[in-house]
Specification:
The longest helix is centred in the first third of the chain and has 36 residues, at 7-42. The radius of gyration is 19 Å and the shape is elongated. The chain contains 3 helices and no strands. The chain has one domain. It starts with 6 loop residues before the first helix and ends with a helix. The chain is mostly helical and 117 residues long. Helix 1 (7-42) runs antiparallel to helix 2 and helix 2 (48-76) packs antiparallel against helix 3.
Length: 117
């Protein structure tokens, strides 16, 4: 990339940003799992809805970070396949993750409305 001499400095920084986004998304989902497990251990009776709510909220936020990571990775990392194939794969992955997020948000909304948690 002769037109962008600073690219050699920006690429590692953006790669690290992508890695951090993925790790942070995994961390958020892990925290949600731990909180849900703790809630289950603490209150085994009548805690199913609350556990789903806790885990679902963390899952939605974690998936959002994964979408950001996928976008950055697709733009930066050359996998050797055609650019349009990479974009198609990215679109499919993003649509699946956004669909999961929308379904989880609807489920959480119905949980909060039905139980007022």
């Amino acid at each position: 990339m002769e037109n962008f001499p600073f690219f050699e400095y920006i690429f590692p920084v953006i790669s690290i940003l992508s890695l951090l986004l993925g790790l942070f998304g995994a961390f958020i989902i892990s925290v949600g799992s731990a909180k849900s497990a703790w809630e289950y251990i603490k209150n085994k009776k009548n805690s199913f809805q609350k556990i789903r709510l806790i885990f679902g909220q963390h899952l939605i936020i974690g998936l959002d970070f994964f979408v950001g990571k996928d976008i950055i990775d697709t733009m930066l990392i050359n996998t050797g396949i055609n650019f349009w194939e990479e974009i198609t794969i990215l679109i499919i992955v993003v649509v699946i993750r956004i669909s999961l997020t929308i379904m989880a948000e609807r489920e959480l909304q119905s949980l909060t409305e039905s139980k007022n948690i």
